Amino acid sequence: MNDITSLNMKKLLLFLLTMMPTALMAYDVQIDGIYYNLDNNAKTAEAVGADNKRYVRSIVIPETISYEGISYSVTSIGEEAYKWYEDLTYVTIPNSVVSIGKRAFYGSTSLASVTMGNSVKIIGDEAFNSCEHLSSINIPNSVTSIGDKAFSYCRRLTSIIIPKSVTSIGFMAFSNYLGLESIEVESGNPNYDSRDDCNAIIETSSNTLLSGCKYTVIPNSVTSINEGAFFQCQELSSITIPNSVTSIGDKAFSYCYRLYSLTIGNSVTSIGKEAFYNCGFSSITIPNSVITIGDEAFYGCSRLTTLTIPNSVTSIGKGAFRNCNGLTTITFPNSITCINDSTFQWCNSLTSFTIPESVKSIGERSFGGCGSLTSITIPESVMSIGKGAFESSGLTAITIPNNVTSIEENTFSFCESLTSINIPNSVMNIGSYAFCNCI
Fold it and tell me: In terms of Cα–Cα distance, which of 347, 364, 351 is closest to 410?
């Protein structure tokens, strides 16, 4: 190997070393197979990993370690310390530890048992996220803070007890589970409660339901359902949202595939983005109180067959009913001025639709892919029709209103049954592929 080649190899090796994850190299000492970082001033140690990551089955973290004749108290578990330790099944966290870092055990999919010491105060964001074999967890009375998604995707958890010491619960801390049957906040917690044995976590000051499970009964005192409160609660089959509730948060019931029965109280004014994304109900009554329906709020509710949207609704988000491929009948309100992008895209069972005279614009792909849609009435109030609005639909005839000045690209492309179209003199522009593959 010549000098130039050797120099280039050294540069490449140096580059690769600098690109390696810091966590692979950043520890001060290894004792009994566990890596630590040391604070020589405070005489404390942080556990940051273990030797032979792929073969570690159990970890027992000691309260103290000794290094070069000095004793250090183990007070924390570092960020991502045991992330993706996929064979790790058992962990003991000693009484000396006060904090568990972000993603400390993230993705340790075999982790089934955690013994947590009674001094832990902080459980960091995603600390136990995706620990899929974790079936139980004892959160000690010392804990004050549970981070965002701390126990998300712990799909075997069946029960959770929140001690009265907890003052902060992060976003979707207990979301995405399969078998969770019981959630309880200990009596005496000043910030959270499980009033009326509701099987849920409620923020006391705001009356907001933060997290529920398959046996949750929403109390009449709850005023809002938080974002992701029942996210991927796949065993939830029935829920009644009481008249006290005014808002349903984003993703509140997303991916509740077996949610077959839903009752929405008559005080709800807003339904958030993806609130009922891919749910299983076949019918729904949207109450007259609702004003806004968020983006993709009912996306993929494939069993939904009929839909009545009340005149109280003034805003329907993008893709709100997209891919509701069982939807055959829609009653649309005369309070809407815009049919948003992809609102009814891929509603393959929809055969006809009447657009009310309040509507001024039809968004992009709003009826795209509605292969059974043979008839639609567009009123003279409509001034613009977006790109691909009726692409791949089953329309046989169409009349463009006199106020439309442009037919955008792909508007009627692949409408293979379209045999009649009336284009008014007002149209000054026809975009590319507007009628592509229309036989």
Answer: 364
Taking the C-alpha atoms of residue 26 and residue 48, their distance in angstroms, rounded to an integer, is: 8
Tokens of 176: 């995405």
CA atoms of 232 and 80, how far apart (whole Å): 25
Kindly indicate the confidence band of residue 52, based on its pLDDT and cuts at 50, 70 and 90: confident
Rounded-to-integer distance, Cα 177 and Cα 435, Å: 47
pTM summary value? 0.90
- Buried/exposed 130-142: b ≥16 CB within 10 Å, e otherwise: bbbebeebebeeb
Q: Hey, what are 336's tokens?
A: 């809407």
Task: Read off the tokens for 329.
Answer: 């009948």
Per the listing, tokens 């619960």 go with 169
pLDDT tens per residue, range 133-150: 998 899 999 999 999 999
Distance of CA 328 to the CA centre of its chain: 28
Phi, psi of 5 (to 5 degrees): -60, -40
Could you say which DSSP state residue 121 is in?
-
Handedness of CA 171, 177, 181, 182 (dihedral sign): negative
Q: Is residue 418 left, alpha or beta, with left meaning phi > 0 and alpha meaning psi from -120 to 50?
A: beta
User: CA-CA distance, 259 to 237, in Å (whole number)?
Assistant: 4
Amino acid at 106: Y
For 298, the token pair is 């009912």
For residue range 246-276, what is the model confidence (pLDDT) as tens digits?
Answer: 999 999 999 999 999 999 999 999 999 999 9
Distance CA 124, CA 236 (A): 28
Long-range contacts of 264-271 (CB under 8 A, 24+ apart): 264/290, 265/240, 265/241, 267/243, 268/241, 270/246, 270/294, 271/297
Q: Which is nearest to 82 in space by CA: 52, 41, 42?
A: 52
Determine the 3-state secondary structure of 303 from DSSP: coil
Question: Which helix (H) or strand (E) covers residue 238, if one does?
Answer: strand 238-241
Token look-up 């089955």 returns 57
Instruction: Dump strand ranges (E) for 17-108.
Output: 29-31, 34-39, 44-50, 58-60, 64-67, 70-77, 90-93, 99-100
Do the Cβ atoms of 47 and 74 come closer than 8 Å? yes
